[in-house]
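User: Please run a holo structure prediction.
Assistant: Happy to. Please share the sequence and the ligand.
User: Here you go; the ligand is beta-D-glucopyranose.
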Amino acid sequence: MKIKKKTFGCLSTGERASLFTISNGTMSFSVTNFGCIITSILVPAAGGLQDDIVLGYPTLEGYTANPVYFGCLVGRFANRIAGASFSLAGKRYTLPANDNGNCLHSGKHGFHKQLWKAQPFTSRGEAGVVFKRKSPSGEQGFPGNLDMKVTYSLTSDNDIIIRYAVKTDAPTPVSLTNHTYFNLAGHDSGSVLDHQVQLFADRYTPVDAQAIPTGEILDVAGTPFDFRSPKKIGQDIEKVAPGFDHNWEINRSGDAPNPVAGVYEPTTGRSMTLWSTQPGVQFYTGNFLSEEPGKNGELYGKHAGFCLETQHFPDSPNRDNFPSSILLPQDTYRQETIWHFDFES
Ligand code: BGC
């Protein structure tokens, strides 16, 4: 296991962002402490050919804008909160309204735009970076001072593991995720509609025209949301135009990471399997990408990548029937999400 550190760039504040590359001899990934953003994942395929399988920008400047949330850690609350507000213990909190009057991914200046403290580590069969940050009470409108520790690592078994631990001094919603866009054929290979996806989820949360959950939790059987057996992303996508951008309820048994999804790319033979401790996963098929200028001059178009964002259900601070996303001072928010990569050699 090897870790390399270099300067990624300088922010307008004069602070330097670092880029860490972690390699296990077979595959590698790079992550910056600006927004805890994964900037590349290099994975071999048949014949040993390596491709970078995540969408992103060539430089730090790209990530300081990043309107589409490439690769980043999202928080305090991933996904949407209706009306950009919620009530907790009789008090109303107002959040940035950056998406049709709703709050998406905690606004434009969320955790993905912050510089985190970073410390690389290596242990037996695993190496990575520990990121730390304190989020003050009132940041993005949320109550409670947060103390956060997030670890991104690579194992000798080709797993990328993200572990999150958060403490608060006052009750507050917390739901963190990583927003990496994958294209297992290579970031610059066009549409992901031929990837085969399986979701270990019997139910999903339908949404209204603004992508706000209606509050129902419905069976996927007989709907385009049925991914219980592997199916091409493109098979039913037109029935849900402009594409999939929904939360599925992960089938769970116990607190250990549960299987979430399997994805297979037939032309390269690459596949990826996900596990997570979270109750939900947002499967998003890059519906709003439109000529986004990325690495190597690539212009990423609609469906050029997919995201599997493990999370609490969207709008759960306003929905009593969804699993609670409220972190209490006596508890610790913990999440573990594992991405395992396979390739035919
Ligand atoms: C949301 C999409 C949004 C995308 C980029 C996803 O998590 O569900 O609606 O366009 O993030 O912000």
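The helical segments are 60-65.
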